[in-house]
Design goal:
heterodimer; A: alpha/beta; six-stranded mixed beta sheet; four-stranded antiparallel beta sheet; globular; B: about 375 residues; alpha+beta; MetI-like fold; 2 domains; elongated
Chain lengths: ~250, ~375
């Protein structure tokens, strides 16, 4: 169970990105974060694994206070939280396989990893995870030779290497075309349904959010303006989240 | 009806005055600069003749030589004529040199050389009683090996005219097979030294700059307060080291380790460390931060993050900057020699000081060729990598 209590983030520039955000996520949920650009979705996701340091508030995960963890504890927490990014964030010049293996860095000894030595078991696991996202045949290519959709699948395989209990996905399909978007979302959904991994995923399109989320949390100017089931978002709620001028766009 | 918009900028006295002040200041600065640097365009034209022998010699580098042969003949010429004086012509292997009149003082003297080597360069020297001498003429023997020359008898600058003068003719020629000149050998030898001097300096520069550059990268260091302090200290050291020119480092190290290529290596190393570290740091600063974020999020340590997310991204620019630096070091190592830092510059400055321009020409052409080759090669390799 992930519990977020009165989370605030004020950036050095004075931007108040999160304002008293509180909510609780049960294990196995697929939570979709929606909201306009700048509403605080990325900041919220990054606060959970402390890529962004929250200014105040608490994040309790399975009884452990993430916000109070020291360096070493934080690394142990992070390795159980997979993260998927809008820009995939693969290391472009490394092979696909090495990129996947980097998901294991939190588990292996530092000195061994500096020599880029990976055990056969780890390599096998990496290949299995690549197979799972359907691109095992690309394992030896350089990461930047792959298409956007394939790169995002590599990123999913990398997250899987962590054997995560939670996956944070920050606009995972915003850089992809609609058809590829669905295939990537299906893999994320599969991790949620079959592996029981809790997913918190921010999305731009409400149509995607409705299709994949079991629960939607909407942010506006750093505040939660909606928290509920997808079907509860009607026209009035929609305008509350996205503003008066917004029009719903379908993505198929 | 359409209205034409007024596109003129409104006049402002403040701006006008500012411009006037700026122009006046600029004129003053340049006028003063012209004066202190003693720019004298006239000498550039009037003294153009002085450069001619130098330029001509530079176009004839001494690449090949034959063995030099010479014979010298000298005839005494007493002033005034002693009583009962018998002229004694100089002879050597059948060649005879006579002076007419055989004794002085006379203003003109005729030199007659017979049975010398045909078509050979002849240098005429006049020796004064006190021992000093002066070159009075250059000529060539004719097809029969004869030379008949009237010269104005030179007067000594110091010492009296009375005493035993002497006229000397030196025939000089080259014979035997054409050989690679010693100059070319020396220059080739020094060029190799120069290239390796640059290589060693670049290598040492890389070894030191590589680890330090990570501490000079803003994006890696600004995450913690101690990191920020380290960053500013490292940057300050780079800037101080870089602000002192290589030649000055060379002079310092010559005092320390003595004249020679090692001083040159040290001087170039110091500058390379500073320059490379700065370029490397900037390469690190311009990487995509995404992978750093992603690797950090997996629970990797700071060191693991740098090895997996930063290093792969900076390898191509690092290689490019290193080759570029080697290129600069080859160019600079030709210069550190001028102050005694070894390499080709060291012999170039010696040839120039001894006025041996044809030998200097060999060194200069060698520099031109090697530096342009390095320039071309480094450009080619960098293009392939980046």
């Amino acid at each position: 169970m992930l519990e977020i209590r009165k989370l605030n983030k004020i950036y050095p520039g004075g931007v108040h990105a999160l304002k008293d955000v509180s909510f609780t996520v049960e294990d196995g949920e697929f939570v979709v974060l929606i909201g306009l650009s700048g509403s605080g979705k990325s900041t919220l996701l990054r606060s959970i694994n402390r890529l962004v340091e929250p200014t105040s508030g608490q994040i309790i995960w399975d009884g452990v206070d993430i916000t109070a963890a020291d360096h070493k504890q934080l690394r142990l927490i992070r390795r159980n939280i997979g993260m998927i990014f809008q820009q995939f964030n693969l290391v472009k010049r490394l092979s696909v396989l090495t990129n996947v293996l980097t998901g294991r860095l939190g588990y292996v000894s530092q000195w061994r990893s500096l020599l880029n030595y990976w055990s056969p078991e780890e390599k096998r696991q990496a290949m299995l995870n690549l197979e799972r996202v359907g691109i095992a045949d690309q394992a030896w290519k350089r990461a930047d030779e792959l298409s956007g959709g394939q790169q995002q699948r590599v990123a999913i395989a990398r997250a899987l290497m962590q054997e995560p209990k939670l996956i944070l996905a920050d606009e995972p399909v915003a850089s992809l075309d609609p058809a590829t978007s669905h295939s990537v979302m299906k893999y994320i959904l599969e991790l949620n349904r079959e592996d029981g991994i809790t997913v918190i995923c921010s999305l731009h399109f409400l149509s995607l959010a409705r299709e994949y989320g079991t629960r939607i949390i909407a942010l506006r100017d750093g505040r939660i303006v909606f928290d509920g089931k997808p079907e509860e978002i009607d026209d009035r709620r929609f305008k509350e989240i996205y503003g008066e001028d917004a029009v719903q766009v379908e993505i198929r | 009806m359409t209205q034409t918009p007024d596109i003129r900028r409104p006049f402002s006295w403040q701006r006008f005055l500012r411009n006037v002040v700026f122009i006046v200041l600029a004129i003053a600065v340049y006028a003063y600069g012209w004066k202190v640097t003693r720019i004298d365009l006239k000498t550039l034209i009037t003294d153009a003749g002085d450069i001619k022998p130098l330029v001509l010699d530079l176009l004839r580098p001494e690449l090949f030589t034959r063995e030099k042969q010479s014979i010298r003949l000298a005839v005494e010429y007493p002033v005034p004529c002693p009583p009962e004086f018998t002229p004694k012509p100089a002879t050597y292997k059948g060649t005879v040199l006579e002076v007419k009149p055989a004794c002085g003082p006379s203003n003109k003297v005729r030199l007659i050389l017979r049975n010398g080597r045909p078509n050979t360069k002849a240098l005429v020297r006049w020796h004064f009683p006190i021992g000093s001498d002066v070159v009075v003429a250059q000529a060539r023997t004719d097809d029969q090996g004869n030379l008949d020359l009237v010269i104005a008898r030179p007067k000594p600058d110091i010492g009296g005219d009375e005493g035993i003068h002497a006229a000397e003719v030196i025939l000089e020629w080259e014979e035997g097979p054409v050989k690679i000149s010693n100059t070319l050998r020396t220059v080739a030898d020094k060029m190799v030294e120069t290239i390796f001097l640059a290589l060693m300096a670049t290598t040492f520069g890389v070894i030191f700059a590589l680890p330090v550059s990570f501490f000079g990268a803003r994006n890696l260091m600004m995450t913690t307060p101690w990191g920020a302090v380290t960053y500013y200290v490292v940057r300050l050291v780079f800037n101080v080291l870089r602000s002192v020119e290589t030649l000055i480092w060379a002079v310092i190290f010559i005092v320390w380790v003595g004249i020679g290529p090692f001083a040159g290596v040290l001087a170039l190393t110091i500058h390379s460390i500073a320059a490379l570290a700065k370029l490397y740091s900037e390469a690190i600063e311009s990487i995509d931060p995404g992978p750093i974020e992603a690797i950090t999020a997996t629970g990797a340590t700071r060191l693991q993050t740098i090895i997996y997310a930063v290093v792969p991204q900076v390898i191509p620019p690092f290689i490019a900057f290193t080759i570029y630096r080697w290129d600069i070091n080859v160019r600079m190592s030709t210069v550190v020699g001028l102050v005694g830092g070894g390499g080709i510059g060291y012999i170039l400055i010696q040839y120039i000081n001894l006025l041996q321009y044809r030998k200097a020409a060999v060194a200069m052409w060698a520099i031109v060729i090697v530096v342009s080759l390095m320039d071309y090669l480094s450009g080619y390799v960098r293009e392939k990598i980046v």
